[in-house]
Amino acid sequence: MGYSSLSELRPLRLDSVAAIGGLLLALAMLPLQLFVSQVYLDTVPFVLAIACGLYLVALYQQDRETTMPRLPTSVSMALPSVVLVGLGGLIVLTSIQGERTPVFFGLAGVLATLILVQILFTSSRDFNQRLLLAQIVLFALVFRFTALYATPGYIGIDIWTHMGFVDSIHAQESLSAISHDKHYASPFYHLLVVASSLLLDVPLRLALYLSVGIVMPLSVLLIYATTNLLVSARWAVLATALFAFAGHVANWGMHLIPTSLGLVFFLGVLYALIRVMRIEYTIRDFSLLLLSSVAVILTHQVSTFIMLVLLLAAFVAQVVFIVGPFGLTRLDTSVFRAKKPVNLIGLVVFNFGMTIFVWSLTPYRDQSFLETILRYFRQTLEESAGFLNIASGSAGASEAGAEAAAPTLLEQLVPYIDVLGFLFLLGVTFVGCLYVVHRRRAEQSVFTLLLAAAIMLVFVLVLPMFGIRNFIPTRWFAFLYAPMAILGAIGLRTFARNLSPGIVVTCLVLFALIYPGAMFLAAESNTENPVFSEQHEQLAYSEAELAAVDSIGELTGSPDGDNIRPDQQLHTDHPYQTVFSRTGAYPSTTTATVPDGGSADHDYVVYRTEQSTDATYFGTADGPGRIEQVSQDRLCSPDQATVYTNGEVTMCTPSPAS
Questions:
Q1: What's 500's DSSP letter?
Q2: Is residue 26 included in any domain, yes or no?
Q3: Fewer CB within 10 Å of terminal CB in the chain, N or C?
Q4: Please, what's the b/e burial string for 78-88 (b: 16 or more CB within 10 A of its CB; e: otherwise)?
Q5: How far apart are CA 369 and CA 361, in angstroms?
């Protein structure tokens, strides 16, 4: 292995300059850790530095002909059978244990690693992309549907509201049933579930799983179709696996809400957009792009905004290649085909115009949706925005409470375990971005992916550090993973081609071993039964907890929220309180306030055993809430009367004697 001498380096090559700039940026970000403790500030600089450093090593290595070790044919033929048997084992394991346990996620991580090993180390003669894609899709189906099977109700919070809307539309046979809500102007998800129920003659819950639930795992194939327009089948399959195994992507395959369907249509927009940039497209291809973008607008508002970011990135890429520094005559046709930039101004104007029009007519909190979000954004800028003013929800409150109580080693490690998979993907994405920024390899399609990922990372990582969370950054990750998976596959392809065999094998093996397991251990992949149950709230409920919601609703008569006095408001933990309010069982329900070391002081409370054994969220009297385990006597005082109990859930009210 040899390297170019300093006199042979070309410092004005954009990829080498960008890599050196990335190293300097990583160094400049390190002092921020002295001012605030935040998991991304602690980790992203190191990831950026490692990615840029490895890229520079690959860039100036003279040994360009890397011979990758390949699996023996017998092993390549046996591994698919091992994976299929293992998937059957996941189903049996869930059926026996009644839930997805840490053993389930451990076995899932091993199977996903075996899939990645097949992709990366199978010889060209034995490589079969159809068989590998089948394994990825089957894995995605099993991983998601075992969670749906083992959960008595629904997984997540918003799903209860949306299925309430679906039930109303189904009962009234009219969209006017939700005319008061913002989803009245974006009803595609709700209409799809109702139509599926009517066509298949099944209950609404099953219709949801047979429509949106099945579409979600199948949609990962759009990543393959998109990536295969840029690189060979091996790396397109790898991008598909990176996306399918991602935690937030899996989450929207289990928490089936309009965001889920919005993600599917977003992938359709991404595929159609890259397609029209890479081929001599026809009116059919452009029509697919137009229809997919309209479908996003009619499905979900946040998904629409993310799609507009993608289209804006594509337009900026067009401008860069028309008036910018990239000479298309120097394009390396062995990597990407030279093609005149596609004019997207009409598409961008149409989608922005239609979005503004629809949002102006969308009802939201006594105003239009557009007016409301602009007002909230202005208030945020005036009241809470500021550098390193990190806004936090329950997770941030949990960190604050943990600091006061001398956190254990596990409590300190869990936030880093949650983001480990994302950081691995982010690292190879940086490498992919450096690769495509070279003048000979730059073109509109890959620059669209680069700019889209960069802009979305600003919304996900940067704006929250300024106290701006109006754009709901947690909803962006699954969408962000689409360009990241494609660029990440290109980044790993760069390593495989340019680094020495020893370094390549080390990088790829570490990635295959750690990435899937880290993604599956992250909170987003196991919200129905968290692996770290003392640090993350469970966003699913047992049969007894759901029965208690119905029984308490019948016991109280499910009074209208306007008829409930403030002292009659029902208090319990978060997220359990959301089920009461979103199902209408007791509309005026909120999070109980439990002082540190003290007891709650509410008239009407609901206790469940989950509050004493696992992580649940409570408010505090003098600041943000926290995740804590609370005993029954701290929520239901001795002088209160027990009006309902089923062994797991207890409702306490003021005693008649008092």
A1: -
A2: no
A3: C
A4: ebbeebeebbe
A5: 8
Quote the CA–CA distance of 279 and 274 in Å, as a whole number.
Answer: 9
Mark whether 562 and 503 lie in a shared domain.
no
Amino acid at 507: C
- In this structure, the answer to whether residues 476 and 562 fall within a common structural domain is no
In terms of domains, do 474 and 568 share one? no
Q: What stretch of H or E contains 286?
A: helix 283-297
Q: Chain-wide mean pLDDT for the chain?
A: 88
Total structural domains within the chain: 2
Residue 7, pLDDT score = 40
Each residue of 61-119: pLDDT tens digit?
Answer: 755 555 778 999 999 999 999 999 999 999 999 999 999 999 999 999 999 999 999 99
Last residue of a domain, one of 475, 490, 525: 525
Please check whether residue 38 is in contact with residue 390, taking contact to mean a CB–CB distance below 8 angstroms: yes
C-alpha–C-alpha distance, residues 62 and 64, integer Å: 6
Give a yes or no: residue 155 inside a domain.
Answer: yes
CA angle 59, 60, 63 (to 5 degrees): 100
Mean pLDDT is lowest, of 10-14, 20-24, 440-444, for 10-14
Question: For residue range 320-359, what is the model confidence (pLDDT) as tens digits?
Answer: 887 755 544 444 545 555 567 788 999 999 999 999 999 9
Cis before residue 45, ω within 30 degrees of 0? Answer: no
**What's the distance, CA 402 to chain centroid?**
25
At 233 the three-state DSSP class reads helix
Among residues 10, 147, 129, the alpha carbon closest in space to that of 90 is found at 147
CB 654 within 8 A of CB 638: no
Domain check: are 320 and 448 in the same one? yes
List, as one string, the DSSP characters of 582-613.
HHTSSSSEEEPB--TTS----SEEEEETHHHH
Same domain, 227 and 347: yes
Q: What is the mean pLDDT of residues 182-187?
A: 91
CA dihedral 529, 530, 536, 537 (to 10 degrees): 0
Other Cβ atoms less than 10 A from the Cβ of 636: the count is 22
CA atoms of 72 and 11, how far apart (whole Å): 42
Q: Please, are residues 62 and 3 in contact by the beta-carbon 8 Å criterion?
A: yes
Whether residue 29 lies inside any domain: the answer is no
Long-range Cβ pairs for the range 558-565 (8 Å, 24+) = 558/584, 558/585, 558/586, 558/587, 559/586, 559/587, 559/588, 560/587, 561/587, 561/588, 564/588
Q: Domain residues for 628? A: 543-654
27: in domain: no
Q: Please, what sign has the CA dihedral across residues 60, 61, 64, 67?
A: negative
Dihedral in degrees, nearest 10, Cα atoms 396, 400, 402, 404: 180
Q: Do residues 260 and 311 both lie within one domain?
A: yes
Q: In sequence order, what are the residues at sequence separation of 6 or more whose Cβ sits closer than 8 angstroms to the Cβ of residue 409?
A: none
Per-residue pLDDT, 64: 55
Query: Do 582 and 481 reside in the same domain of the chain?
Result: no
Rounded mean pLDDT of 463-486?
A: 92
Domain shared by 345 and 375, yes or no: yes
Q: 390, 384, 494: which is closest to 437 by C-alpha? A: 494
Write out the two tokens for 544. 């007894």
Among 133, 136, 134, 131, CA closest to 77: 131
Q: How much is the average pLDDT of 295-303?
A: 95
> Burial, 593: exposed, middle or buried (Cβ in 10 Å; 0-12, 13-18, 19+)?
middle
* Identity at 122, one-letter amino acid code: T
Residue ending a domain, among 460, 494, 525, is: 525
